[in-house]
Specification:
Blueprint (H helix, E strand, L loop, with lengths): L4 E2 L4 H6 L1 E5 L5 H12 L1 H4 L10 E2 L5 H9 L3 E8 L2 E11 L2 E9 L8 H17 L3 E7 L3 H9 L3 E8 L9 E2 L5 E8 L2
Parallel strand pairs: 6-7
Antiparallel strand pairs: 1-2, 2-4, 3-9, 4-5, 5-6, 7-10, 8-10
Length: 189
């Protein structure tokens, strides 16, 4: 997962023209605002999905992104078009499963099929390179529209939830008191 790899050749990938590469620490100043713009604040409202009605504050910070980049068994995959970073996702090796997180697509590019390409590429990579049998992710349960998008990609809700880290401003400032995460799972075999 270390090299820039073109998207498998299809009509969609030719139109989109993206490449993938593993993030390095020098990419942190690009990744933080990308993730922020896709999740929080007014910029996030330019896409089809946002957390802006659920949370204020930051989605991540430089230390959090650096930790993902440097953690053993973790890859922050950057998606570039014409030399510009347009999306990213975190892949973490967890034995027979892989974790998919920190998925961000620039808001103005959302809804055009890029997210579908990225998640398919992420699934292919963890299956082929880590022999992962499942992809796991956690999504805030109040994000029903986003969960429905993942369900259309083959992910299923497990009903297994975990609490939102209230009181830890590194994860944002909740606007509601009922936030929690749900585990979504997709078999990759």
């Amino acid at each position: 997962m270390d090299t820039a790899t073109p998207v498998p050749e299809t009509a969609t990938s030719r139109q989109v023209g993206v490449t993938y590469r593993r993030a390095v620490l020098d990419d942190v100043p690009v990744v933080v605002p990308l993730v922020q713009s896709a999740y929080r604040g007014d910029a996030s409202r330019g896409g089809w999905t946002t957390e802006a009605d659920l949370l204020d504050g930051q989605r991540t910070d430089p230390e959090g992104v650096a930790a993902v980049i440097t953690a053993p068994g973790s890859v922050l995959l950057l998606v570039e078009r014409d030399g510009e970073t347009v999306a990213c996702c975190q892949l973490e090796h967890r034995g027979e499963a892989a974790y998919f997180g920190m998925f961000a697509v620039r808001p103005e590019l959302q809804g055009a099929g890029l997210g579908k390409l990225i998640i398919a590429e992420a699934e292919r990579r963890v299956r082929e390179e880590w022999d992962a049998r499942e992809m796991h992710m956690t999504v805030i349960t109040a994000r029903e529209e986003l969960i429905a998008w993942y369900e259309r990609r083959g992910y299923r809700r497990t009903g297994e939830t975990s609490p939102f880290p209230y009181g830890d401003e590194r994860f944002g400032l909740p606007r509601r008191d009922d936030l929690r995460f749900e585990l979504l799972v997709k078999p990759l075999v």
